[in-house]
């Protein structure tokens, strides 16, 4: 997997130096962060921002992008993502071997969200949250069937 990722020359990876000292060849050792390591957790972090907006009763459309509201899930998940990246780098440098970043990022993001929901007493609200919008006619027919 590492050989394939290193061999691809395109905008799907970010390379950054592990240290500023070159090795015996004079080359700087590089670390690789794939686009999937940014995008997949990014979707989850964005969903937590939407969940915070939903809890604050902010309408989805139209919305004022600069309207202040509390963002506990977004902030905890973003902080956990940063800690997951740091942990990935520490393990990679310590063991001197490539590490799959998602192995650390996914548990960090999901774990921080679950802990935030647990401590706020909103576990049920978190698990029932959906972005789907039901049309009024469909909602009425479902409600009518429940009353029968």
Describe the structure.
The protein has helices at 2-7, 35-55, 72-95, 102-120, 123-128, 136-147; strands at residues 13-22, 28-34. The protein contains six helices and two strands, in the order H-E-E-H-H-H-H-H. The radius of gyration is 21 Å and the shape is elongated. The model has no long low-confidence stretch (mean pLDDT 80). Helix 2 runs antiparallel to helix 3 (72-95), helix 2 packs parallel to helix 4 (102-120) and helix 3 packs antiparallel against helix 4 (102-120). Helix content is 59%, strand content 11%. By secondary structure, the chain is mainly alpha-helical. It has a domain at 35-131.
Physical arrangement of strands within the biggest beta sheet = 1-2
Most strands sheet: 2 strands, antiparallel
Q: What is the terminal separation in angstroms?
A: 56 Å
Residue runs with pLDDT of under 50 for 5 or more positions: none
Strand content: 5-15%
The share of residues in helices is 55-70%
Order of helices and strands: HEEHHHHH
- The oligomerization state is single chain
**Quick check: average pLDDT?**
80
Principal-axes geometry comes out as elongated
| Overall strand count | 2
